[in-house]
Amino acid sequence: MGRCTEKTTEYERERPMTSSGAILQVIAQAAEEWAKTAYPYHTLASLGEPIKSFVRHPADDVEIEQADVLLFLMSAGVQHGSNWYFWVQKCLSIPEAPDRLVAALATGYDRVTYRALYALQLFDKTDVQRALDRSPKNLRPLINKVVVDHVFNGKVLSYVQEQTRSHDAEKAKKAAAVVREITNMCTTAPDFGKGDKKKVFISYNHRDAAHVEKIKLLIDGENLGIIIDTDYLRFGDNIKEFIRKSVRESDYTLAVISRNSLLSPWVIHEALETFMHEQVSGVPKYQPIVIDTCFYQNSFYLESVESIEQGIYELADYISALSKKGLTTKTLDDKKNQLIKLRNEMDTVLSRLSDNLHADCTTHEKMEENIKKLCGQLLER
Questions:
Q1: Cβ atoms < 10 Å from Cβ of 105
Q2: Do 362 and 261 belong together in one domain?
């Protein structure tokens, strides 16, 4: 978990909320840190009770004029099942807030949630209140329906398309990025089949393909459906959307753990996506399959971070050299940001591995025995 979450929680523990001014100060600090962190979802998921209580039961006369703080409170509202309508209306009272929301859509961590917030602006209060009757863990299916009914097929896409013609070049650019993202999510994606079989998504690094092929053959002999990139990811497909769909539509993520996979930005992304779904649904989904016990070594974390940082420094040098020549660096910027996220979230995944009982597949004999046992347990759940 990122530092900002720990700092905010500690701040809440040490300072009792004795006035509205005190809680607003804490919220402003949390919102500022939330905007900076590499994986904001974890911050929202672990907010302390004072902030959650404020979000769920706001005073009618509360005065908040900072757009970023209102976006933070709206996002916290989606996460914790609070009074969405109240915070949406507050946001609409701040002229720059919708523009900030467009910017968040273009670069945000959870675009589906932000689109749902846009869609809520089209709701009447009765629809929102009906949504609020559900517990937080049951909100995600409703949000998905909101997105389909009101964003993809409704007025929100039209609204954002209008912004692409804005005289403000920066706003038009951000709105265009939103339209592209919505279009990508609306295009035909791989069909993993409906069927009655439980499905497992195999997350791995391609350097471990030989081991993974053996694991896949063993799972094939059980009554489980398999989602794996070699079967479903097509040339030209959006990789992040494939990961989102794979995690969303599978019952379990089988993470093949090795030095290769733990140093892979994509595998870490798949793990974090799975953790997010677990927090929303409350259902365990992440199942490690260990083919390399490197992470047991006390030195592994530090050595990994140093290796990742070396890659970051090299990319920074290339980016600097290209910038001096007046050239764009988006591809290298994306790679650098992936490595930064990998460095920042490495401990989140390692902590999960140390807490979870995993399937030991470090030898052929153990692989045959434990994959069969694991499949049986998954089918019984």
A1: 22
A2: yes
Would you say residue 311 lies in a domain? no
Half-sphere exposure of 144 (CA within 13 A, CB side): 11
**Which band of pLDDT confidence, cut at 50, 70 and 90, is reported for residue 205?**
very high
pLDDT at 7: 36
Whether the Cβ atoms of residue 78 and residue 147 lie closer than 8 Å to each other: no
Neighbouring residues of 108: CB distance < 8 A, sequence distance ≥ 6: 114
33 shares a domain with 163:
yes
In a shared domain, residues 221 and 347: yes
Q: What is the mean pLDDT of the chain?
A: 75
Q: Is the pTM of this model over 0.85?
A: no
In tens, the pLDDT along 2-53 reads: 333 333 333 333 334 445 678 888 888 888 887 776 556 667 777 888 888 8
